[in-house]
Amino acid sequence: MTTFDRRDLGLLLLRLGTGGVLAAHGTQKLFGWFGGHGIEGTGAFMESVGYAPGKASATASGLAETGGGALLALGLATPAAGAAAAGAMAGAAAVHTPNGFFNTSGGYEYAATLGLAAAGLAIAGPGRLSLDHAFRHVVDRGWMVPSALAFTAATTALVIGARTKRVRRQKEGEQEALFEE
Length: 181
Fold this sequence. Notes:
- The chain has about 180 residues and is mostly helical.
- The protein has helices spanning about 5-30, 40-50, 55-75, 80-95, 110-125, 130-135, 145-170.
């Protein structure tokens, strides 16, 4: 079959939308574009929510979002791109989880949606309207999908686990009032 079908067009739209949003979000962290705070401001925020060191965390998150998003949009190295973006969004979701699900309350809805879309693209593949297809899937092999997702899941679990320990230790130092005055 030489013509593109609905699946290819749907994957293209999903890649462009998800990848574009992720890349824009990442450039806020890295460069301060689109109203972002750049590495310094994002690093201070990351430190305040338990990701330390903050500047390194901001850089890693920004690179995963910008690079993963750009590669997803292009349909290049789709397993690694989707896994990296999903890992970054899992880290963001961990910060927002105490606020519940919905974004209107500061919840993890937005991060989860982007992360699931990125992981779904890593699994489904980029479709024929992609650079992976044009380059004969040299960096989009079947074995790369579980490898990229497993590596990212392990790394993300370690990073979120370390953050959780830092946040718990910080809260242990803060004692709530026993009685209202």
